[in-house]
Write the structure tokens for this entry.
Amino acid sequence: MKPYGSDTEGEEQETPLLRRGNKDKVQRAPACCSSRYTLALLSFYGFFVVYSLRVNLSVAMVGMLNNTHQASTNHSGSVCPAAGSPAERKYNSTAHVYNWDSETQGWILGSFFYGYILTQIPGGYLAGRFGPKWLMGFGILGTVVFTLLTPVAADLGACYLIAVRVLEGIGEGVTFPAMYTMWAAWAPPLERSRLLTVTYIGAQMGTVIALPLSGEICFYLDWTYIFYIFGAFGLLWFVFWAFLAFDSPNTHPRISERERLYITRSLENELSTSAGHIPWRAIVTSSALWAIIVAHFSYNWTFYTLLTLLPTYMNNVLGFSIQQNGLLSALPYIGCAVSAIVSGQIADYLRETCLYRTVTVRKSFSIIGMIGPAVFLVAAGFTGCNYTLAVTFLTLSCAFGGVSASGFNINHLDIAPSYAGILLGITNTFATIPGMVGPVIARALTTNNTIEEWQTVFYIAASINLFGAIVYTMLGRGNVQPWAVHTAYSHGD
């Protein structure tokens, strides 16, 4: 038998010890009213804000365009007839509309990610160096401010709107690395899937609520109020975050001693004892990290394609009105949120109770969460004008994607909890590229908005997803890597 802490059997021995519970060392603290679950709820709200500010433009774009101009330039006999008879507005909107062609729309929708990519790796480094609380807080606050300025920027011209969206992306770029850095200090290993799933579904619920609510706001008021209302939600979050969030259990003034000891002792064999040293060479050459990079990039290609262009597809191809659009565009993300919650519970149950290896759980959930979306996304392109079937397949595509929340999405914390923020920054840098180029490529391929053109978009996304699933299955790991900790113990690779 190999020594304890080695790459194979030693890793398996660590798991039963932790799961039986060493009463003298790690006594589990209750979840109800705990500080770690309070942080989970705060992070849920934070990512609700982050994604509502990110996706509201997708619906607002439908209301920002001059419909007469769009109808004359995007005519196609393959576009479905209008779905139902939408209600007519009972007032005259005073908001301006614009004559942006499909190429300009693609650049506007993708511009957010040009700023977002700039602060991923710096965000992970700064969070580890100066603490994640205020980095995340001011990052989201900056995004809120520029969201409130969006209507003014649009009136000034497309270039100004693009600039504002880039600045929003810069602010939001630090949020995921900062939050992962915070969870590295707060999430006990056997509660990671549950705690991070709460954070993750905040993003899904931001999408779920922002899309239909944006459609209603645009219908009953006008598109400018979309940015004002969601901006106000963001300001309120910052107040809660400033007073209730803390960088670590040791800096929290109101945490119970039992919970503090439970968290810190469960992590003491995983966190690096040399916080000032970052093993950059080992990080960038780690096959475990590159497996996550490829999976994250591939998954995001499909995710961002739907996130930014689903309202456009609903409107221009399936014929849904702005009011119908928001609700139906949100349905896929309801499925994603539900599957993310369920998968988080199942993943931790399999690891803690059934003693499944971490790597087995992560790979299995990643395969389901990447191949499932690919299959149903392609299927959606072949439903023609069957509105019910199209929305059903798109919903199933997103629902299967939610399973990956307990797969590669949190694998950073498995392989290097001390550097989770930096690793997330690296993987999210690559994973942001689909958001930058995806909408531009998709709109360039769908100038006539035919079903055949959109089938090509879906084929590309599905193929990239399949490739990512294969690479992660081959190279993914579930144990703490030797370069991530001086005394390397794992939790069940």
